[in-house]
Specification:
With about 1500 residues, the chain is α/β, with parallel strands linked by helices. Helices cover about 30% and strands about 10% of the residues. It has a 4-stranded parallel sheet with strand order 2-4-5-6, sandwiched between helices. Helix 4 links the parallel strand 4 and strand 5. The longest helix is centred in the N-terminal third of the chain and has 36 residues. The radius of gyration is 41 Å and the shape is flat. About 50% of the residues are buried.
Length: about 1500
Amino acid sequence: MCLVVTLFHCLYNVINLISLILLSILSILTTTIQAALGNNSWEEQTWPEGLKNFPFPCKPEEISFSPPSESVHSLRISDIRFVGAIGNLETTPDAKMVLKRQKWTERNQMQTCMQVMTVLSDFIKKFSPSVLPLLCPTRGKVLPRMRNEDLGLQARELVGHMKKNEKLNFHNDWKLINVFFNAQSQCHPCSSSQQEGNMTSSMQELIRLLDYLQQEVPKAFVNLVDISELGNSFQSNNQENGPRDLNEVCECPQEPSRLTTVVQRWYYQNSWEKLLASGRYDTQDTFTVIYHSFLHEIDPSVFPRKQTSGSSLRKLSTALALSLWNGMIDPTGRKEELFTTGQRIPVKCPTQKNPYLFTYRNNNKLSSAPEIKRRSETREGTEIRCPNMDPSNEVPISVHHLRPADVKVIGALGDSLTAGNGAGSMPGNVLDVLTQYRGLSWSIGGNENISTVTTLANILREFNPSLIGFSTGTGNQNSAAAFLNQAVAGATSENLPSQARRLVDLMKENERINFQDDWKIVTLFIGGNDLCDSCNDPLRFSAQNFTAHIGKTLDILHAEVPRAFVNLVTVLSIASLRELYQEENINCPRLILRSLCPCVLKFQDNSTELTTLIELNKQYQEETHRLVDSGRYDTRDDFTVVLQPFLEQVPMPKTPEGLPDSSFFAPDCFHFHGKAHARVARALWNNMLEPVGEKKKEENLENIINVICPSQNQPYLRTYKNSNYTYPTATPTSSPKPGYGSQLWCEDRAPSASFPTSVHALKPADIQVVAAVGDSLTAGNGIGSKPDDLPDVITQYRGLSYSAGGDASLESVTTLPNILREFNMNLTGFAVGVGSADDANAFLNQAVPGAKAEGLKKQVQTLVQKMKTDPRIDFQRDWKVVTLLIGTRDLCDYCTDSNLYSATNFSAHLQDALDFLHREVPRALVNLVDFMNPIILRQVVLGNQDKCPMTQASSLCNCLLTVREESPELARMKEVIKAYQTHIRELVESGRYDTREDFTIVLQPFLEEVKLAFQQDGIPDVSFFAPDCIHPNQKFHSQLSRALWNNMLQPLGKKMDFLDLTADTALSCPSLEEPFLRTYRNSNYTYPASPAIENWGSDFLCPEQGSSNSAPSSVHQLQPADIKVVAALGDSLTTAVGAGAKNDSNWSTAWRGLSWSIGGDGTLETHTTLPNILKKFNPYLHGFSTGTQEEAAGLNVAVGGAIAQDMPSQARILVDRMKNSSEISLDQDWKLITIFVGSNDLCQYCENPEAHSVKNYVQSLQQALDIFYKELPRVFINVVEIMELVGLRQIQGEKCAVTTQSSCPCFGRSLDNSPELQEMKNINRHFQSGSSLITYSHQYMEREDFAVVVQPFFQNTVVPLDDKGKPDLSFFSVDCFHFSERGHAEMAIALWNNMLEPVGQKQTYNNFTYSRTKVKCPTSDNPYFFTMRNSGLLGKEGRNKTPSVPFWAVLVAAAASFLVGMVLVMLWRTKKCSRREERPISLVATVF
């Protein structure tokens, strides 16, 4: 074995050494190459393999030969003699980074240029084989932040090199010069004027460069290549290169919008096209400049996502070179569309008809195409002459009686159409589209007055001149003039909630607004940008997500804004934009249009993609209708949302000639101009006065729209109620349903006469705040789902939740908040609508679907933080009711990890959460609702297998739904459920939460027993459940709410502990004599004393199980009842030193009869040990220990103080005892042997690493196993991994007879965080790995009747803690070092359960939690002790068969850890060698 370990160790180091050598060689080669490339100022390079596999389609031989051209306008590819480049082809560093801290990869700059130019040169060589090697600037000439003015230096270097090149005839040879530049500035200027000035300055720098080349270089064809798109594509993926600090770099800290970027690039490109087409560089026949922009031809998706290297860099370089090649061959002005992802870029070829490189002159494009003049534009004012423009006589309290003149505040949310981008731009001034003319915005602009500017705000100002909130002038949403116009240019629906949040805050903070009393109009319009990008991310921009975002926004307004009328304008039919884009007679910047709205414009007519878009557009509209028609925003009399559909079918406005009328659009042909804003404002106003259900859906904007007036009979803004409109759909969030509402007949609904200071004198009307935490039941999953809509169960109907929902009112929705609102209308904290816990409308319903007890504390922490920070809550003064329900999910997963989900752990997590509430929250009554017994779910699901989705239900609660009736698993689950309930009751009745006068926790037990409703045929009635048959629906929640409320009014000791779903439960009322919510004190209730634990035995829940029909011949078919003999090897932990000690006088006694692995005192009901468990299967078990006398040790050959080297001798003794025993049939009886050793080796390791090394430990185990393997037939051996001993450092106390420093010096005497302690932790892990390595050795798998299995429950040892967070000494003997009987019982359970778990799936920890029901049972599917083979890790056949899984795969994890351990051991030895001359410390150690 030593040789094997040594070989493994050497191999590990050799591999590492080889890797380091290869990396070093690679680094040296790279450095050498870079140095070589940097020797000269200009480097000639060719990459002959660049296009080795590229299929070049052009055929030079098909073009007739002609002598070199004398004119650049008849220049052929074959005429080119020289190719060179200047500029920076690498990504532009992120402008948002601090410059001095940016990481700059200079090598890639040169490499990209070289690869692009190599591809281009290889193309040219096909036509001109004599072309000279290409030139690119080297690293020394490429600056990290290359500016356009820096290109001049490179240009001079290039010209100098060409003149000196003896192979080049400078005056007569044609030269192709490529100038790469980036149009992007370090900062995007903040205004359009700054944009223009910045870009003009940048152009002037490049013009000076081109002028220089025109003057100095004869016979030159210059490609001016704008690589801005390349830089942008990289910047978005290299954000990690440095810290952002805009203030140090830019004057304007805003992130440039998509519109800003697109318009800037278009403007820049257009300016260059105009300049070059003007003929400025075509005054000579020997020089020309052609502008190229990769934005024309390359979809950004072809760019790599990460920093370029290897194949990604070559792919990028090839794409750029192809685009540049095509740009020279393709006639200027007829560039191709963007290429889509995955599409091969076609290669253009010169032809006999068109053999020349195209220039502006030979393309007859000496000037840009004449612009078509736009129609004259005038501002459209409006005249308002309505007979009744007065406000109501009294300020209305109902939104359904709201007149225009009653409105005092106006606000708006949306995108650039509401922000007013380009609304006031002059014709042709595309750059000015970046200006946000908010004062002209259709829904909120307030420039001038109605006579010159028609907007909704200006119309309303005619009715109420004191209206505030409108925007004026220009600026973004943060400018003062924007006021309550919080629309953000470029916004999509997912941005709306944050806009709503800011709008609400602005209204609350503004001193001119009386937030509670002023009537407000808010207009919301969004969706265009979602549709424009929908094809790029269909999931993100789905109709469901679109509606959900709008719902979240409206939920915020509904939850927080009193007295509000919300206009929800449906998204327009955006496909009509294609008419403007496709009309060639309209001069529109199509590049901008295509970039802003690719999903509408880039697909062909009648394409599937276009059809999908149109359908999605309709779904947006339909889902928006459905949202409003749900009625969820009509739960208050002072708030409503009205859908205004006038844009749904709006056609493209046309000129008299039948062409799209561009005068309605800003210069970019995308945004509305002032004319459109005026017409849309009139249409919105008219929609607001049209009855719901009769609103106009199609408005022809090309016609003058007359403004209508409120009528004498209907002077109000129209709502569903004053329109006598009934919503066509009814959703569960608010619609009344039979039996779902309740009546409350209480006479006394008044609060206390004086504000209560005691929770025991709390009346319902005193409650100001309601909150809840828990799982999906409280979150409301599936409450409102239709019976056949299974996918909808994921929807969280929080507004209907029994304990925290606030949808509608008690008349139609029964919830605890709706009941409490009958006592206090100002109650807050309840949830409305649907959504997650993070949504604003969830408010203080912080339940999380799928939550378990472990996550409860996080929920209450979030809840408390919300209560502390929300302005609607006076945290110190307001009385609060918090309802908590948890536990079902823990139970549903109990069988997967009985320790993790033990009753003790459940109680501990619950206690943590309640402790936090008790510590942090003043004035609170906490309802602790006993969880719903999951057995009823089993009844419902299994009783309706034809109706319930069995697969989904089983996945939600596998531990209860997949076990058989009357099975031990089910019996055990029932016991665990009782244990959970007991722990909850004991926690509350401990009195720990009744230490303050203003806080208490009351257990509401109505869910302990649930009586299901049954149909006539005896099948459980699923009408109380969501479609998954797991979650309660609204019918069920209504009953939950009634039961909870009634429980709250019932005195402790007399609370109803069952729920009858079929009962017609009436809501109780506080009585005059007992008006308070009941607590232990006002119930005169005394908590019962906790029963004492009599012993550490366990309950046996397994059915009677006999032995196999005949004694199995294979260890892989060994059942518990087949075990005839039990034995153990080890140290004092197996002899059970101190296990039964009560004082210091007998702590050193070995209580072998209580030993976890071999003790047999009493029965399982009184003493939990492995033999006592086995005796339940075979009462005639032999070999266990009893009592404390050595003669009763049986086959317990463990010796106190033993180390691993003692294991072979113990094995020898054990074999001899077995052979000499008359009670044991050595050949026939199956034997179970448990080996646990190593603690003493570890505790003494630091004193003698050689004697206690991992190698010796492994060898000793192997020698012991070899003895058993050679001499004992029919053996199953447990090798228990050594525990983590570092936890012993935590155990200390005045009553401890022994300290860790003396009992285990190598761990006890090291300082915290010291290298020595860390080394010991590592050695500890390597001891564990070593046992795995040797026990899974293939040599012990050759016999059919022999198996060695590692039981790893100690692998991750957790020291048990008491309720004060200190080590629980009840698990330890009086010496605080050895285990007590309780500790031995926990070890026995863990060992037994490990034996019943498959190899590879065994629990690797034991958290020492007490429960009498933790002992697992074999199952009919898995009746055997698990081995490697019956765990499915080896083949099913005998020893001569090849394993189904490579054997090395089984050992690799242990081997890897072991090898690393050997390295650490060597380091330890090295460190110890340096100390050998020191005087050794004398240690007197207590040993195991």
